[in-house]
Amino acid sequence: MEKVLILTSDSNTGYPVPATKGGAVSELVENIIDSNEKNPVFNFELVSIYEEKAEKKAKKYNYTKFHWCTPRTIVNSLDKVIFKIAKLLLKERSKSFKSMLALIQYILFARKILKNNTYDKVIIENTMLLFWTVRGLKKYQGKYYYHAHNLPSTNAFLKKTLLNTTKVLTVSEFVKKRVSAGKTKFPKFDNKKIVVFQNRIDLNNFRILNNFETEKLQQKFGLNKTDKVILFAGRISWEKGIDKLIDAVKK
């Protein structure tokens, strides 16, 4: 089986894998490694920010090896100061600076793992700065892939490294079109090397409610049987687009 390293740290390093603290990227990666346990195709290794519950949950995996990066106390303290300053200057766009030093520590930690080992493929999940882990490492030329969960918001000062990406996986046709047209911070990329890989969910976690359960929920929330309900799942922040949902409901 191929040996594949997955780099998962998000821009604020808040969400480990397994996804004990939530997070869309972490949830999806956990879904992928769970599927690989049922039908093993890859020997995965995964670099995650350390979290006690995540480490305990990770022990159930036979086909995923975990590398835990633990941010130092001084790093966490300095990150809090940097984030306070960023909030004053950048306001709602300050979230990328929430754990900047912890992210740099993660990058250095992952880069060391890449240097000391050899992998058939490397998957970079969403955060553009993670491309610094493979910069200049010739043994990974043609072996690293980028999984874009949204529109890339920075080129991480690594245009050449980005252009050498083997393939870009996008969560939608919209993101694919924008990347291939060069309308994001990712440099204009060959359309043939971009593949849509839509987000998945585990259908076993969902079921149709029976009439009794439906009526109980309607009573709980004061709903009539004819009322239409729209569910929004996500953080209430500008990049999630809840304002667009409200505008759409009005129309």
Describe the structure.
- The mean pLDDT is 90.
- Strands 3-2-1-4-5-6-7 form a seven-stranded parallel β-sheet, with helices on both faces.
- Helix 3 packs across helix 4.
- The longest helix has 18 residues.
- With 251 residues, it is an alpha/beta fold.
- It has eight helices and seven strands, in the order βαβαβααββαβαβαα.
Notable features of this structure?
15% strand; alpha/beta; 251 residues; 7-stranded parallel beta sheet
Helix and strand topology:
Blueprint (H helix, E strand, L loop, with lengths): L1 E6 L16 H15 L3 E8 L2 H7 L5 E6 L3 H18 L9 H17 L4 E5 L18 E5 L10 H5 L3 E4 L2 H8 L13 E3 L14 H10 L21 H9 L1
Parallel strand pairs: 1-2, 1-4, 2-3, 4-5, 5-6, 6-7
Describe the structure in brief:
By secondary structure, the protein is an alpha/beta fold. The protein has eight helices and seven strands.
- The helical percent reads 25-40%
Coarse shape? globular
Number of helices: 8
Return the structural class. alpha/beta
Order of strands in the sheet with most strands: 3-2-1-4-5-6-7
Mean pLDDT: 90
Contiguous runs where pLDDT drops below 50 for at least 5 residues:
none
As a whole number of angstroms, the C-alpha radius of gyration is: 20 Å
Please outline the major beta sheet: 7 strands, parallel
The proportion of strand residues reads 5-15%
Give the SSE string: EHEHEHHEEHEHEHH
Oligomeric state: single chain
Could you give the count of β-strands?
7
